[in-house]
Design goal:
- Forms a cyclic heterotetrameric complex composed of two molecules of XerC and two molecules of XerD.
- The mean pLDDT is about 90.
- The chain has two domains: about 90 residues, Tyrosine recombinase, N-terminal domain (DNA polymerase, domain 1, Orthogonal Bundle); about 180 residues, hpI Integrase, Chain A.
- It is mostly helical and about 290 residues long.
- The N and C termini lie far apart (about 60 Å).
- A three-stranded antiparallel beta sheet has the order 1-2-3.
- The chain has 13 helices and three strands; from the N terminus they run αααααααβββαααααα.
């Protein structure tokens, strides 16, 4: 049943590879727990008590609440699928409640640090250096997700129109503008790409193959480590940085929502908290009564 659910996510919901893998990992852990604890080999036969027992065991292991909530969400999606297919009579996840978590503000890199990153001294002038700069410029200059960058084909880039066509979650398409400086960089990058490359992917590895998540993550961490002391140095931090810098410079929140490909405004509003914190800091530093 788990295999059928994963196929449903992959082919009908058009979920990303990363999303499907996350569900697969969570449900595999749950299935192993059922077999070990209850000698139950069919997850569709699991009871509410068994589900709650697993959640309690995760908490006892010291797993942070946000991770536990993700696994609860995986269970809800799986049993919701079984219920819709009439493979079970009752949804055993109805009794599960999400754990309370602290809301973390999105980590982002300061503007001065991003200026330092792109001043030209960190990147070599060979193909690898230009490719690495394209990766950083694309993530920070467009706010696209890691999976969206990896899935981007050369045909999705319109250098004349200065836009890229991005396929986000559930294959939802959006058009994102790119700067003239990024257009110039992309032209230089594409000129240096070997015409013999057998992949249509925009970002490729040193060996000419399509880039994969860990490869991009390593590139991002390498360069961010040179300009920031943030503990998180990931592609998603650059997405947060893109949104925060837009908001700080007066961009409309609804426009940022569309650029990021968020389904609703609530997901975008978290960036306003960073702006409020910045205002508070300015007030404390400058106002005589602060």
């Amino acid at each position: 049943m788990i295999a059928k659910f994963l196929e449903f996510l992959k082919f009908e919901k058009r979920a990303s590879v990363h999303t499907v893998k996350s569900y697969e990992t969570d449900l595999d852990q749950f299935q192993k727990y059922l077999q070990f604890q209850y000698e139950c080999t069919a997850p569709e036969k699991a009871t509410s008590v068994m589900l709650r027992s697993w959640v309690v065991s995760l908490m006892e292991e010291g797993l942070n609440p946000s991770s536990v909530n993700r696994k609860i969400a995986s269970l809800r999606a799986f049993y919701g699928f079984l219920r819709r297919k009439n493979l079970i009579e009752k949804d055993p996840t109805k009794i599960l409640s999400a754990l309370k978590t602290r809301k973390k503000l999105p980590a982002f890199v300061e503007e001065k640090s991003m200026e330092l990153l792109f001043d030209g001294s960190l990147f070599t002038e060979d193909f690898q250096g230009i490719r690495d700069k394209v990766i950083l410029e694309m993530l920070y200059g467009t706010g696209i997700r890691l999976a969206e960058l990896i899935d981007l084909d050369i045909s999705n880039v319109d250098l004349i129109g200065r836009t890229i066509r991005v396929f986000g979650k559930r294959a939802k398409e959006r058009i994102v503008p790119i700067s003239s400086s990024l257009v110039t960089l992309l032209r230089a990058y594409l000129e240096q790409r070997s015409p013999e490359e057998d992949t249509k992917s925009l970002i490729i590895t040193d060996s000419g193959k399509a880039a994969y998540p860990v490869f991009v993550q390593r590139v991002v961490k390498k360069y961010l480590s040179a300009v920031t002391t943030l503990s998180q140095k990931s592609p998603h931090v650059l997405r947060h940085t893109y949104a925060t810098h837009l908001l700080n410079r007066g961009a409309d929140l609804n426009a940022i929502k569309e650029l990021l490909g968020h389904a609703n405004l609530a997901a975008t509003q978290i960036y306003t908290h960073n702006s409020i914190e910045k205002l508070k800091k300015t007030h404390q530093q400058a106002h005589p009564k602060a």
